[in-house]
Specification:
908 residues, alpha/beta, N-terminal domain of TfIIb, Rossmann fold, Dimethylsulfoxide Reductase, domain 2, 6 domains, seven-stranded mixed beta sheet, six-stranded mixed barrel, 38 strands, iron, Mopterin_OxRdtase_4Fe-4S_dom, CT_Nitrate-R-NapA-like, iron-sulfur
Length: 908
C-alpha cells in the first residue's frame, strides 16, 4: 500500500482585504506553516500579495490575549470564563433594567466571520431589543451600501471580478488598487498585456502606484467627484449617449438627475476648473466613456469616505444607468470592499440601520418577519447609533456599556481622542480581541480572548458576493474561543433562548434559512438569497466551495452561483426599476483656512493592514515603509519650514501627531497624505485618527477621512538615532519613537530633545545593560555629537544604538543582517565602530520587493552592472516584481533614476 507522507493542506481564505483570496496552509516539519495561494480559488487563482504571502509570519503567540481578564483597581487580573461573563451579564442586566436597552451597545468589525456577525446582530436586535450595534465597516463601506439601496432598492454589487477582464474600459475611482487590492490590480495588468486596447483610467488626487499602468490619470481636487460625474452625466445626455429603451423600461428619475447635473456641470470647462484638471484630460475621459459600451467603474475609499460619499456613489451609478452599462458582461459600477468580510457583515445586518438578510429595519413587515423567524422576545424598532454618534453617546453618558469586538476604535475612528475620552468615562467597556495590548484594550474593564485567523472556522464574503470558507488549521491557544461562542455563552447568561448553537455550521444554516424565509414580501423577492445552502450537514459545510450569491440548487443537486446581477433588467425596488438619484455637488464640510491651510488625505500603504496588530508582527512587511510619514509637495514643505527626511508635527482642530516628511512625487500642492496604520504600540505619537474631523455623510454616517484641514510645522529636535535590540525596550523618556519588527530583533527609530551629558551612561540605562563587565563596543565624537555602541553577548550582537544630530546614519539593512550571525567577525566589529559595512555589497538598502526581500541597493547595482532595461529583466535577474507585482511601479522608477544617474556620471 502506497501511503503518502505529504502533510495535508487546509484550504482557507486570506485575513486581509475584500478581494477574498484563497489560501493553502500546509504544516511544515519545523512547526511552522507554509502559506501559498489556492490555485482553485476563483478570486486569485493561486496568486497572493505580499501581505497574504507573509501570513505565516503572523501566527506566533507573542502578544496574544490568551485568558479572560478583569480590571480591578487599575490592574488586570486573570479570571475564569464564568467569572468574566457573569460580570458582563450582570452589569448589562442592571444597566438595561435601569436605563433601557439603548443604554448598551456593540461595536464590531469586518474582521469577524459571518457566523460571528450573525449571532451578534441577532442578540442585539432581536433579544436585547436595541439596534445599537454598528461596525467598523461604517468607516469604509456604508456610503456604498446607502448608494446601492437608493439606486437598486437593496445593497447589491452587480458585477464580478471577471467583468474587469471583459471590460474595454476600466475606471478606478478613489482606489490605489495596486497597493490596496494587489491581486485585482494584477488581473487588470494581465488583461492590459493581452488586450492592449483596454483603457485604464485612474481618478485620484494623488499619483499613486496604480497610475503607473493608467492610460489616463485625472488628478481631481479632493472632494470634487460629484462635479466630475455629474459633468459626465450631463455630457452623455447632451451628446446622445443614452440607451433610451433601457432607461424607459428599467429606470425612474432620469430627467430629474440630468437636470440637477446641468445646473453646475453642463459646461465641461467649468467642471475642469472645479476639479482642477486640464480640459483636454477631462474631455478624453468623457469621450472615451461615451464611446465604450463595456465600462466597469470600480470605486473604493476615495469615494466612500466623504461627507458626500453616498452622493458620489450615486453620481457614478447614474452614469451607468444612463447608457445601460449594467447587468451584462464587462460593465457596471463596482464597489471594492476594504475588509475580508465587510460584505458578510452587510448580509447579516451588521450595521445599526439594517436587519439580517438584507431586510430593512424601518419596515414593519421586515421586522415582523425576522422576529417571527428568530422567535425572539422583542425587536429593535428604530435605527441604532452609527459609529461616530455611538462614541459621542458614550461620552455623554447615554450609552453606559459598550462591547468592542475585533476592532481598535481608538486608532481607527475619526477624532480618536474623543473616542478615548468616551471609553474612559464609560461604566463598562468589554473588549474581545486576539491581542493583549492595543490602544482600545487599555480602556477596557473586561478583556475576552478570541480565536484568530487560522484558528477560527466559518465563512466570509468578498467584494464580488462570493462566499468562501475560512477553515481552521491551528489549535485554539490558551483559553481563546470563537467570537460566536463567547456571545452565545453571554446570551445564555442573559436568559435568552435561541443561542444553543454547537458549531459555526449550525449558525450558517440558520443564516441561510432566514435568507429564503418568506422571500417575496410585497411580491418583490430579496436578491440576497442563499436558501439553497440551507440543510447542509457538517460534512457538506466543511467541503463548501466558493460560490457567489444569489445561489440556486440545480436538479442534479449542484449549486449554481450568479456572476452578475440585473441581467434581466429587474431591480429590488417595488416597481422593479432602478432609480436615478438627483445629486447636487457640495464641498467637504470643513474647508482649509488660514490656521489650517492644507487638506489631509489618509489611506493605506502597500505592506500594512489597518492598525498593524497582524502585519506589524511580520518582519517581511516591516522594511518597505518603516515609519509613519506625511507626504507633501516640496513647495508646501518649504513654505511651512519643514524638510524631507525630518520629523514634523501635523495638527488639526481635533488633534495632532508627528510623522516624517517625504516628497513622494504624487501629491498636489495644498494637500498632504498620511497613512492610517501606526498606533500606540508601534509609535509614540502617530495616530492619524486623532487628526481626522468627525463630520459624516448625512445618509450613510461615513466619516470624512479624505479631507481634514491641517497645519504642518517643524518638530524641533537635538538628536536622531536608532536602536536594534533583541529585547523589548521602554522608551517613554524619548521625545519620539517608532517600533519596527525585525527577524531577530526589534528596531526603534528615535529622536530626542534633551541634551545628553554622558552618552555611554544614558545608552546603557536605555538599553538596560548592567555591569562594567558587559562586552560593550563604543565610538564617540563629542564635538560632532555622534555616538555608536554595540552590546555583545557570547560574540553575538544583542543590541546596538546609533545617535547623531543629523539624519545620515548607518544602513539599517546592513545592521539587520548582522543579527543573523551566530558570531561576529573582526571585520564586522570594525564596521560597527566605523558606522558602515567594510565588505562590498553588505548593504542591500531599504526593501523594495517584500515578497522576495530584495533591497533598493541590490536592484540599482544589478541595473548598472548588468545593463538592465526593463522590469522583466530585473525580475529575471533578482525575482523582484515576480509575485504580487505591487513593487513594479517602484522598480520602474528605479530603472529611470539609475539610468539617469549613470548618464550624468559618464557625462561628468
Amino acid at each position: 500500500m502506497n501511503l503518502s507522507l505529504e502533510p495535508l493542506s487546509v484550504r482557507t481564505t486570506c485575513a486581509y482585504c475584500g478581494v477574498g483570496c484563497g489560501v493553502k496552509a500546509t504544516p511544515k516539519g519545523d512547526g511552522g506553516i507554509d502559506i501559498a495561494g489556492d490555485s482553485n480559488h476563483p478570486a486569485n487563482f493561486g496568486k497572493l500579495c505580499v501581505k497574504g504571502s507573509a501570513l505565516g509570519e503572523t501566527l506566533g503567540l507573542e502578544g496574544r490575549l490568551l485568558h479572560p481578564q478583569v480590571r480591578e483597581d487599575g490592574a488586570l487580573r486573570q479570571v475564569s470564563w464564568d467569572a468574566a461573563l457573569d460580570r458582563v451579564a450582570g452589569q448589562w442586566q442592571d444597566i438595561i433594567a435601569e436605563h433601557g436597552p439603548d443604554a448598551v451597545a456593540f461595536y464590531v468589525s469586518g474582521q469577524l466571520l459571518t457566523e460571528d456577525y450573525y449571532v451578534a446582530n441577532k442578540l442585539m436586535k432581536g433579544y436585547v431589543g436595541s439596534a445599537n450595534i454598528d461596525t467598523n465597516s461604517r468607516l469604509c463601506m456604508s456610503s456604498a451600501v446607502a448608494g446601492h439601496k437608493r439606486a437598486f432598492g437593496e445593497d447589491l454589487v452587480p458585477v464580478s471580478y471577471e467583468d474587469l477582464e471583459l471590460a474595454d474600459m476600466v475606471v478606478l475611482v478613489g482606489s490605489n488598487t495596486a497597493w490596496c487590492h494587489p491581486i485585482l490590480f494584477q488581473r487588470i495588468a494581465r488583461i492590459k498585456e493581452t488586450r492592449p486596447h483596454v483603457k485604464l483610467v485612474v481618478i485620484d488626487p494623488r499619483r499613486t502606484a496604480t497610475c503607473e499602468l493608467a492610460d489616463l490619470h485625472l488628478s481631481v481636487k479632493q472632494g470634487t467627484d460629484v462635479w466630475l460625474f455629474n459633468g459626465l452625466l450631463s455630457y452623455l445626455a447632451r451628446n446622445g449617449a443614452v440607451d433610451a429603451d433601457f432607461v424607459a423600461r428599467h429606470t425612474n428619475g432620469m430627467a430629474e438627475a440630468v437636470a440637477a447635473a446641468d445646473v453646475d456641470c453642463a459646461d465641461p470647462a467649468a467642471v475642469a476648473r472645479k476639479c482642477r484638471i486640464e480640459l483636454p484630460v477631462l474631455m478624453e475621459f468623457y469621450e472615451s466613456f461615451a464611446a465604450t459600451a463595456k465600462v466597469v467603474t470600480a470605486f473604493s475609499m476615495g469615494v466612500n469616505q466623504s461627507s458626500a460619499g453616498t452622493d458620489k456613489v450615486n453620481s457614478i451609478i447614474n452614469c451607468h444607468l444612463l447608457g445601460g452599462r449594467i447587468g451584462q458582461p464587462g460593465m457596471g459600477p463596482f464597489s471594492i470592499t476594504g475588509q475580508p468580510n465587510a460584505m458578510g457583515g452587510r448580509e447579516v445586518g451588521g450595521l445599526a440601520n439594517m436587519l439580517a438578510a438584507h431586510m430593512d429595519l424601518e419596515r414593519g413587515e421586515h421586522r415582523e418577519l425576522v422576529q417571527t423567524f428568530w422567535e425572539s422576545p422583542r425587536m429593535a424598532d428604530k435605527a441604532g447609533l452609527k459609529a461616530v454618534d455611538l462614541f459621542r453617546a458614550i461620552e455623554d453618558g447615554k450609552v453606559k456599556a459598550v462591547w468592542i469586538i475585533a476592532t481598535n476604535p481608538l486608532v481607527s475612528l475619526p477624532d480618536a481622542d474623543q473616542a478615548r475620552r468616551a471609553l474612559e468615562k464609560c461604566e463598562l467597556v468589554v473588549a474581545t480581541d486576539i491581542m493583549q495590548n492595543t490602544d482600545t484594550n487599555a480602556c477596557a474593564h473586561v478583556l475576552l480572548p478570541a480565536l484568530g485567523w487560522g484558528e477560527k472556522d466559518g465563512t466570509v464574503t468578498n467584494s464580488e458576493r462570493r462566499i468562501s470558507r475560512q477553515r481552521a488549521f491551528l489549535p485554539a491557544p490558551g483559553e481563546a474561543l470563537p467570537d460566536w461562542q463567547i456571545l452565545c455563552r453571554f446570551a445564555q447568561r442573559m436568559g435568552y433562548a435561541g443561542f444553543d448553537f454547537n458549531s459555526a455550521h449550525e449558525i450558517f444554516d440558520e443564516h441561510a434559512r432566514l435568507s429564503g424565509y418568506r422571500n417575496a414580501v410585497d411580491d418583490v423577492p430579496r436578491a440576497f438569497n442563499i436558501g439553497a445552502l440551507a440543510g447542509m450537514d457538517g460534512k457538506a459545510y466543511d467541503a463548501l466551495e466558493p460560490v457567489q450569491w444569489p445561489v440556486t440548487r440545480l436538479d442534479s443537486g449542484d449549486l449554481l452561483g450568479q456572476a452578475r446581477l440585473f441581467g434581466d433588467g429587474r431591480y429590488a425596488h417595488a416597481d422593479g426599476k432602478a432609480r436615478f438619484i438627483a445629486v447636487t455637488p457640495r464641498l467637504p464640510v470643513n474647508t482649509i483656512c488660514e490656521d489650517y491651510p492644507l487638506a489631509l488625505n489618509t489611506g493605506r500603504v502597500r505592506d500594512h493592514w489597518h492598525t498593524m496588530t497582524r502585519t506589524g508582527k511580520a518582519p517581511k512587511l516591516a522594511d518597505h515603509i518603516a515609519e509613519s510619514f506625511v507626504d507633501m509637495h516640496p513647495q508646501d514643505a518649504l513654505l511651512h519650514g519643514v524638510r524631507a527626511g525630518e520629523l514634523a508635527r501635523i495638527s488639526t482642530a481635533w488633534g495632532s501627531m508627528v510623522a516624517r516628511v517625504q516628497h513622494g512625487g504624487g501629491i498636489a500642492r495644498g494637500s498632504v497624505f498620511i497613512p492610517i496604520h501606526w498606533n500606540g504600540q508601534t509609535a509614540s505619537d502617530a495616530r492619524v485618527g486623532a487628526l481626522v474631523n468627525p463630520v459624516v455623510d448625512p445618509v450613510s454616517g461615513e466619516p470624512e477621512f479624505k479631507h481634514t484641514p491641517v497645519r504642518v510645522e517643524q518638530f524641533r529636535l537635538n538628536w536622531h538615532g536608532f536602536i536594534l535590540s533583541r529585547s523589548e525596550l521602554n522608551l517613554d523618556s524619548v521625545a519620539h519613537w517608532t517600533r519596527i519588527q525585525g527577524r531577530d530583533f526589534a528596531r526603534y527609530e528615535l529622536a530626542g530633545r534633551q541634551n545628553i551629558a554622558d552618552f555611554a551612561s544614558w545608552a546603557r540605562d536605555l538599553l538596560g545593560v548592567q555591569g562594567e563587565q558587559a562586552d560593550w563596543l563604543e565610538y564617540e565624537d563629542r564635538s560632532a555629537g555622534v555616538y555608536r555602541a554595540v552590546h555583545l553577548v557570547d560574540d553575538q550582537i544583542d543590541q546596538c544604538i546609533f545617535l547623531s544630530p543629523r539624519q545620515d546614519m548607518p544602513s539599517r539593512a546592513w545592521l539587520a543582517g548582522l543579527f543573523s550571525k551566530e558570531q561576529l567577525s573582526e571585520i564586522d566589529r570594525v564596521g560597527l565602530l566605523v558606522g558602515q559595512p567594510v565588505e562590498k555589497g553588505a548593504d542591500t538598502g531599504p526593501t523594495v520587493c517584500s515578497c522576495f526581500g530584495v533591497g533598493r541597493n541590490t536592484i540599482c547595482n544589478a541595473i548598472v552592472q548588468q545593463d538592465l532595461q526593463t522590469v522583466a529583466q530585473v525580475t529575471s535577474c533578482l525575482k523582484a516584481g515576480g509575485n504580487c507585482g505591487s513593487c513594479v511601479p517602484e522598480i520602474k522608477k528605479l530603472l529611470v533614476e539609475t539610468r539617469v544617474a549613470v548618464a550624468e556620471e559618464r557625462a561628468a
